[in-house]
Every structure is written in C-alpha cells, then in structure tokens.
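Researcher: Re-running this chain for the archive, since the previous output was lost when a drive failed. Same request as before.
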Amino acid sequence: MLEQLFGSKTRVKLLRLFMNQPTQPYYLRELARLLKTQLNSVRREINNLEKIGMIKSIQLAEPPVGSEGFKKKTRGGAKKYYLADTHFVLFPELKALLLKAELLLEQNLIKKIEQLANPRLFILTGVFVGREGASTDMLMVGSINKIKMAKLVAALERELGRSINYTVMSNNEYKYRQDITDRFLYDILEGQKIVMVDKTGVW
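Model: Regenerated structure tokens:
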C-alpha cells in the first residue's frame, strides 16, 4: 500500500526504520543489512530522503549506542551516519501515516491468523505496544499450523521492515505454564499487551 504512495518499497522500509527510531543513527551498509536490501538501492533512497529533508547526515568518530559499529576505520577516523530529521515540517504527519498503515497491516494479520488457527488466546505485545526488547511480540495458544504461521509472520516482517518474535503454545503447554507460574508466560500476561482473542475461560 505505502510503496504505491511513496513509489519505492525500499523508501518505505527506510522511513519506517527512521520514524520508529528517530534518534538512532545508521550508516549505509548497516541499513542495507537491517533491511535486507541492496546497497545501491538504499544509497539512492537515502539521497532522495536527504534532499527532501526527511533525514539528515552526521559525522561520527565512534559508533553510536545501538549501532553495529565500524567494520573498519575510515580516512580521518569518522563515518557518515543518517538519522531522522525531527524538525522536518511534515515529520509528525508522516509518522502518524506510517503508524496507521502498520495498524492496518496488523489488523489484516489478525484476521488471517484467526482464519488459519482459530486460537484460544492471541496476544500482541513487544513491538506492537512499544516494548522494545520484550521476550516475544506475539503469543498464540491453540492448535496452530506452525509452518503456515511462519509464512504469515515472514510476510508481515517484509511489509513492516523489521523482525517479529512470536510464540506458539499448545493448550496443554499453556495450562502447564500457568500452573507452575512460568516467568516467561507471566511476563506477557502481566505486562503491557493487547489481547485480541481470549477463549481460555472455556476449555
């Protein structure tokens, strides 16, 4: 959807990354690896976004926190990094547009998962609620085809331009983890989350 609006899938991936992490600088090869996109394509879109004013470049002598770091020293000891320009006049509107597009993708995913698996419990957490670094982003409980689920999630990852961790549990495993007060499970149940489906009251 957004690639039709912006004219390039690589551009959309870059915008999502920069808008989701507006203070994090990235260098070209790092962006190509993160987005799994050819370097020339990334370089072309970076130049376009910088000319428009959506992103800016900075020179850093040391890798910033969260960066993959330098693979080798450049001449002069500095390397060019790129990050979102939060002073760009359309920055708030652009970020809101990308968020709404992601919500539409998530709603489409939810419908597909419900059709595929009819889960007893389906929870969105992690990146879906702003909990970066959470143990998982999705929890599904029920009789779920793991191969088909992996394909669905892979398609969503390509659309969003980021990885998604998900957990699938059988009904018996879920009840067992509840009984032993499993730390992993209760971190999900008691943390920030969006409960999409909950039929666990009737087994």
